[in-house]
Amino acid sequence: MQTTLRSDTAEVNIQTEGPIVIIGEKINPTGHKRLAEEMKADRFDYVSELASAQVAAGADILDINACIPGLDEVALLTEVVKVVSSKVSVPLCIDSSNPKAIAAALAVAPGKPLVNSVSGQETLLREMLPMVKDSGAAVIALTMDGKGIPNNPHDRLAIAARILDYAARIGIPANDVVIDPLVMAVGADQQAGKVTLKTIELLRQEFGVNIIIGASNVSFGLPARHTVNQAFLALAAGAGANCVITDPMKFTSLIRATDLLRGRDSHAKRYIRHYRAHSQSCRSKPEVGSAFLSLTTKEVM
Ligand code: THG
Domain map of the chain by residue range? Predict the structure, then answer.
């Protein structure tokens, strides 16, 4: 299964057997005071900075969220999409729960973006999916509906089935629907990680679809969140998740290591390229294995 996304100049393929695709999450004013202030004042230099930094850190796609209570999301999201697409060349993921904002952003987004997101709620599907179809975009489907997020994998699977079915009926193929099995906090419910991992396995087995997870919800409320997030990400990849919405500054090296360990990085090329581009300390302080590393890099570059 392959989901193809495009900007004006670049193409990204999310493939079930391919390496993990990284969606940079940082252009999101929720809980990010400085970004919210700048967006409110119609200043977009910081947005541009976050766009470039995430791409440099390994983001394949950028999530764009411009929801600030009291502000006109339709106008703001449209503006941020324009700013980001003129700054970087990666495809975009348009993140809003407001169908009007999504419609406006789709009208200005280049190429083939990813819409984030629809749920199984009937009214939302009826409003959003035709828009996705008409604009030729792809869409993230959350495994929740009007009744909330089921706490067992089979009910989440049933919602995914309903959304895939609805999409197919209006002409959106399964490869343009990326399923989000939803990650909840293990601090609040210690079975939450297991439920998501099982949902990922079932989605992969039953539908063979591409699967996206948000890496950071799982650790909410716990100390040393990064450790929990990293462990979860590796487990989710093992279960079959192949797209992650996360902070690429913090997670790209873990993701490259995960791909390598799963046999999805021939000649360790992507792992080593990332290491060389981002690991200053390792260049000045060679470790055991550096001989092997330089040998391998010479071979592959
Ligand atoms: N699935 C899908 N979409 C999603 C999520 C998901 N969109 C939103 C969210 N989850 C992913 N995006 C973020 C964005 C920012 C943060 C977490 C998830 C975040 N921000 C810092 C904080 O709150 O502490 C503040 C920003 C900063 O200073 O870096 O953690 O699961 N489909």
Answer: 1-112
